[in-house]
Amino acid sequence: MLKWCSYCQQFMGEVPSYQDLVVTHAVCPACQARAPDFTDSDFDLAMALRDLQDRLHEAGRRNDLEAADEAIRAAIASNIRPVDILVGVIAPLLYHIGEQWKQNRICIAEEHRFTVFCDAVYVRICAMAADPAGAGAVPEQRPRILVMNAPGNVHTMAIRMLALWLRNRDWPVQLLEVPVATEQLVALLTSVRPRLLLLSMALAEQAAAVKVIVERIGSLPESVRPSVIVGGNAVKLGLVAPIAGSEFVADISSLSGALAHLLSGVPADAGLELSR
Description:
The strands form 2 sheets. The chain has a 5-stranded parallel sheet. Strands 2-1-3 form a 3-stranded mixed sheet, with helices on one face. The chain is α/β, with parallel strands linked by helices. It folds into 2 domains: 2-129, Methyltransferase, Methionine Synthase (B12-binding Domains), Chain A, domain 1 (Orthogonal Bundle); 145-262, Rossmann fold. The chain is 48% helix and 12% strand. The relative contact order is 0.12. Mean pLDDT is 79; it is low at 131-140 and 266-276. Helix 3 (65-77) packs across helix 5 (108-129).
């Protein structure tokens, strides 16, 4: 299920069952802190989000980017942020389409077509989410986060959305869309010195390569050794055993909590489930 703040309409995360795209409600920490005189808007928000889901799903089925643009503009007019459309609507729809393919309910061509459609929507939403004035510049003292797929994971949509979400919260992010060899990664870590490495593992068979990376990172001097968080479908569905030296995050809320724990001064907040 998809958890949204009933009041500011920010996406807060996913909760089991992950196959269910029904909208559920909570109040985000920022709204709780403000404690205004709220009115009950749960039903209206649920209907707006369900309408957005349906319109984007149908637009993807027809590969109709004009219809997608109209749906996105309507959502933004309803105070839904562009980045939350990505992490709270597009990402779950991609997961849903992937599950339909696994269950032989759609063919591989349909799955690929929808993925290409979502990629085009991602580009459009990124443009809408851009800050041309340069407001909210990243403080230099914030530790850098490196984001990459596990070797063998060819889907980049999730890590691109994750990078956008982190940047939206003013974290300096370096995104590696193509995984590098382990020693190349070590050289990069030594040079850039990120505080955190986020790895997205789509399939259980990618666990062996992730284990090699985690063990090699564990051998680095503490001064250049980042913490490692692993997410993705394989983690989300419980297909792999935990890997010593890393922390597994199954969903958006788990990632938020892990970031708050590992990165000092980061408030618990919504995150991005690394689903593909």
